[in-house]
Amino acid sequence: MMSNVYDAAYDMEKAIRNSSEFTDLKNLYDQVNADPGAKGMFDNFRQLQMTLQQKQMTGQEIAPDEMEQAQKTVALVQQHETIAKLMEAEQRLSMVIADLNRIIMKPLEDLYGAPEQ
Amino acid sequence: MMSNVYDAAYDMEKAIRNSSEFTDLKNLYDQVNADPGAKGMFDNFRQLQMTLQQKQMTGQEIAPDEMEQAQKTVALVQQHETIAKLMEAEQRLSMVIADLNRIIMKPLEDLYGAPEQ
Ligand SMILES: [Ca+2]
Ligand SMILES: [Ca+2]
Questions:
Q1: How far apart are the first and last CA of chain B?
Q2: How far is A22 from chain B (nearest CA, A)?
Q3: Where does the sequence pass through the membrane (chains A, B) (predicted)?
Q4: What is the pLDDT of residues B2-14, one digit of tens each?
């Protein structure tokens, strides 16, 4: 029985790797990384995003000028065509992965009952 | 391509549902729920666990007497044979699911690089 679960996981890993959602993302990510200007802009944005998420998760306050800085950075990266496309591709893959997680977690949800909406 | 990912997810859902880890957990959960005394004890423990987790996640302090209460409740439920087995079964399934998540997230990890250990 055990091996079936792991076999299914490896099949799914392969399916994700071959999906258009993943290959699109990979191509855009490679494009951004091949362009030092784009890469710098994107790394800067990613860093800021992680800092803000960490603050949110640990209940720290986000200062108004930090928020303003974040909004400016988002506006800037969204004007870069390849980065904007990369962010859309990330969004699409995230949605697929959220779907997959819902499907896989269905047995546990059936057992314990769905969480309140 | 898309359908392959979802097909793989449904196969995996079935594999989880048929795994001994899941069926063991389900049998123990049904046993606990069929026994009002055990069910009450387990629900009480689960409720307390969720309250403490929520506090931890939102950065709220856990009072010393709340911690003491939690430790007493854990000690109590662990003395109940079926509940103790249920908790072990939950632990085993959690470990399998963590493995599965690691396998499935491998493509993204390869793309973005592994998080720092
Ligand atoms: Ca980078
Ligand atoms: Ca219950």
A1: 33
A2: 8
A3: none
A4: 568 999 999 999 9
